Amino acid sequence: MSNRQKKALFCVCGALSFACVLGAAVAVGSPQWVKGSILCHTGAELVNATDSELEQFVGRVAYGLFHGQRLRQCGLGGRPLRFSFFPDLMGVIPMGLHVSVLLFCALLVVFSSVTSAFCLYNAFGSPYETLHGPLGLYLWNLISCLCGSLAMILFASEVKVHRLSEKIANFNERSFVYKTQAEQFDRSFWIILFVFLTHAVNILLVRLAGIQFPFQEAKEPELSTGASDLMY
């Protein structure tokens, strides 16, 4: 592959990585990670509500990593409330797990920025066969993929295993018990998945440019008469 084609591919990788930076940053601050419906279980049992009457006892909840809102209904109209994870829910949610999700999301933004910079450096600079060259292109994309996957796995565990929506719905509630009727991941969660897939595509584009995977082949050492060889 010619140098011009390699530069074009590296520019595409850099642009995709920069889009990942913007997408991940927007997703972290957005309250659209999970949306669902919550049932006022106590109120529905008190009046022995049937299927048609259950709608008066079904509220909504939507939240992100920092804040969200809920609407609780127990047959007497909705009670909307906005909340923040810090400091409102610090004693309710699995704090260590939630902070880990925030940490990996922050690392995803950082390493996506590093990936974008290194792709553009390889396109317009003169990289050497170290972390500035092909090894760096694979390494930073791989780390970004790892951060994105861990953020999604830990957040899914927090929502599904630790029943985060129910804990939010029952926060500061003494008279009624709420249960999650339905919940699904919202657009911000899928943006993180898109970022993960984009970095995986970047790895394939780097391979398409003719850059061998690190340590793919054990080559015999060649004699060198000067400085390190340029990548191209």
From TrEMBL:
Q: Which InterPro entries match?
A: Clarin (IPR026748)
The reply to whether Signal figures as a keyword in the UniProt entry is yes
Say which family it is in: Belongs to the clarin family.
Protein known as: Clarin 1
Query: Which gene is the coding source of this polypeptide chain?
Result: CLRN1
Q: Where is the signal peptide?
A: 1-23
* Cellular component terms (Gene Ontology): ciliary transition zone; membrane; presynapse; stereocilium bundle
Kindly give the PANTHER family that the UniProt entry links to this protein: CLARIN (PTHR31548), CLARIN-1 (PTHR31548:SF4)
State whether keyword Membrane applies. Answer: yes
**What compartments host this protein?**
Membrane
Q: Set out the biological process GO terms recorded for this chain's protein.
A: auditory receptor cell stereocilium organization; cilium assembly; equilibrioception; protein localization to synapse; sensory perception of sound; synapse organization; synaptic vesicle recycling via endosome
Q: How does it sit in the membrane?
A: Multi-pass membrane protein
Name the residues that span the membrane: 97-123, 135-156, 189-209
Q: Which UniProt keywords apply?
A: Membrane, Signal, Transmembrane, Transmembrane helix
Where is this protein primarily located? membrane
Pfam families found in the cross-reference section: Clarin-2
